[in-house]
Amino acid sequence: MTTDVQRLTVVTEKQTAAVKTRKRLLSILAHVLLIGASILMLYPLLWMLSASLRPENEIFTSTSLWPSAISLDSYFRGWNGLRLGFGTFFINSFTIAILAIIGNLATCSLAAFAFARLEFWGRGFWFAMMLATLMLPYQVTLIPQYVLFHNLGWVNTFLPLVVPKFLAADGFFIFLMVQFFRGIPKELNEAAMMDGCSPWRIYWKILLPLSTPVLATAAIFTFIWTWDDFFGPLIYLSDIRTYTVMLGLRTFVDSSAQSDWGGLFAMSILSLLPIFLFFLFFQRLLIEGIATTGMKR
Amino acid sequence: MTARSIQDANRAPTTERAVSPSVWSQLWSRNAGGYLFLLPWFLGFFGLTLGPMISSLYLSFTNFDLLTAPDWVGPANYVRIFTADPKFSTSMRVTLFFVVFSVPLKLAFALGVALLLNRGMKGLPLYRAVFYLPSLLGASVAIAVLWRQLFAGDGVVNDALAIFGIKGPAWISNPNYSLWTLVVLSVWQFGSPMIIFLAGLRQIPVDMYEAASLDGASKWRQFWKITLPLLTPVVFFNFIIQTIEAFKSFTPAFIISGGTGNPINSTLFYTLYLYQEAFSFFRMGYASALAWILLAIVGFFTAFSFLTSKYWVHYDD
Predict the structure, then answer these.
(1) Quick check: is B67 in a domain?
(2) Which pTM was predicted?
(3) Which of A71, A99, A119 is a domain's end point?
(4) Would you tell me which residues 230-289 of chain A have a C-beta closer than 8 angstroms to some C-beta of chain B?
(5) Which of B51, B258, B278 sits opposite A143 (nearest CB)?
(6) Is residue B288 within 8 angstroms of chain A, CB to CB?
(7) In whole angstroms, what is the distance from residue B179 CA to residue B185 CA?
(8) Complex confidence, ipTM
């Protein structure tokens, strides 16, 4: 009996040593693999950054990332590369994004509160409808929406891009907020209900203050998606004074790309900068936001 | 009135019934809150989704150029699409090719890297960030612009290949490769499904693996018998989302081909063709018919996935 146990411990000790070295080798291998993949993933972005910082005659001369001299010429050239400066486009994009954030936060949280916390006839049905709209290809509503906004005289204004956000048209955020609200203990608002609190007060005074993480996540994603949106501005904005940054870039590609890649890259980098900053400072929120949408609570 | 609200009404104390005797005011007090909170959403749902859907179904049976009133033509648009429109079949083929290659490749990368990262690696947050970044930036016009340069005949990819003595083709302007550059662009953005896989992997109880390795199950067997079955709900979710996204993809093809879908329509995504019909040629009735065909395909795909899911998706409850 004792010998058995002794033998066993000796064997396991030998084994653990072997397992340890194997594990170590595997882990080194994994790191090598991951570092290689990381470089491959980031190379295009870094290359564009470096190309935008090079003197004009050097942009295409090397695949290396390090510019021989740093020059901001491309940025100045690109900024004024179109009939109207990129300053206007940036202001337009920011305006649309900020209005979209306000709209989404206000109306999606109202809808999410109703779905997550209020009892009413037909709740399950409407919730299913809301989820179904998530799967709907936008093309199917595109043309009548265009006709509607066209007839309202809203083409070449920001309204077609902003008003839908004030009507909780982004089901994804309702879904995200419902998931979050369900995680807040129900006792909190049941107690408040007993004390005669109205649903509005519960929403405004209890639920919203506890929901800053999901509100921040929704705000950041709204910003990024509105900022990146190309299709909406493409069909609704044709006056250059109303252009967003994305439309500006597109015009740049079509008009002067062959002659001024430097300016194009510089403006591309600038257009990515706000998103990159959000990523840098709020990465955790973004990753958690993405992760929770795939999970069932 | 539903069974539940009748029950509630029965349970309600008599005093409350005395205060609000009418059925209508009770209905109001039970439901008004919910519907008031949903008011903006209802406006959007009926005004921007359901109404337009019905309207576009109607338009798909008309000729409509935005300026004059729609002209009813019956099923003529659909007949032409299926029998006499080579661009329809081309764009459908291009889109299906894109979906069939980009989605599985993207999910395979996402799952592979997630498994690698889930081993409790040092530096996990850093790797995760690096792999996630492209999927956050990827939708931008700027990235499509970058791609156009990377895969140009004298682009960075060919410069890199030249180091190994390979002379690469002009990827973007060669119809044999142009669509592949878009597949690569999509796969490059595997970060967000990867994040979802990572979250799913973390929910698998560790003791299952401990029990399995005590029973002598190899890592390989553990993956097939534990990890993958328990991860199928997440695989299913990612698969549906990514496939629908792939069907809807527009910006990269538009920017890379300058809005044309060229060379020789090799990047003419279905969405791009629909856009051209609607907004370049103002054949809005025809484009509506195209949109409803897209909806039918996406709807059929989704329904099919959900119906077959019970045979391969593992639900523990």
Answers:
(1) no
(2) 0.86
(3) A71
(4) 230-231, 234-235, 246, 249-250, 253-254, 257, 261, 264-265, 267-269, 271-272, 275-276, 279, 283, 286-287
(5) B278
(6) yes
(7) 10
(8) 0.84
Q: Is B219 on the interface with A (CB under 8 A)?
A: no
Q: What is the pLDDT of residues A70-119, one digit of tens each?
A: 778 888 888 887 778 888 999 999 999 999 999 999 999 999 999 998 88
A269 contacts on B by Cβ (under 8 Å): 142
Q: Is B315 on the interface with A (CB under 8 A)?
A: no
Q: What is the pLDDT of residues B185-210, one digit of tens each?
A: 999 999 889 998 988 888 888 888 88
Residue with tokens 């002009």: B170
**Domain count of the fold of chain A:** 2
Q: Please write the tens of the pLDDT for every residue from B28-78.
A: 777 888 889 999 999 999 999 999 999 999 999 998 988 888 889 989 899
> What gap in Å lies between CA A229 and CA B251, rounded to an integer?
9
Average of pLDDT values for B263-271?
A: 86
CB-based contact (8 Å) between A40 and chain B?
Answer: no
Same domain, A107 and A61: no
pLDDT in tens, B132-183: 999 888 888 899 888 888 888 777 787 778 788 777 777 877 787 888 989 9
Q: Are residues A90 and A120 in the same domain?
A: yes
- The answer to whether the beta carbons of residues B260 and B251 sit under 8 Å apart is no
State the sign of the Cα–Cα–Cα–Cα dihedral B297, B301, B304, B306: negative
Q: For residue A283, give every residue at least 6 positions away whose Cβ sits within 8 Å of its Cβ, in sequence order, or none.
A: B129, B132
Contacts of A202 (CB under 8 A, 6+ apart): A117, A189, A192, A193
Q: Which residues 118-147 in chain B show a CB within 8 A of chain A?
A: 119, 121-123, 127-134, 136-137, 139-143, 145-147
**Residue range of the domain that includes B24:** 14-43
Q: Do A286 and B136 touch (CB under 8 A)?
A: yes
Number of domains in chain B: 2
Scan for tokens 């979906």, then name that residue: B99
Are both A227 and A254 inside the same structural domain? Answer: yes
Residues 6+ apart with CB under 8 A from A289: A176, A214, A217, A218, A220, A221
The answer to whether residues A48 and A268 touch, using CB atoms and an 8 Å cutoff, is yes
- Nearest-by-CA chain B residue for A220: B136
pLDDT of A258:
57
Q: How far is B176 from chain A (nearest CA, A)?
A: 23
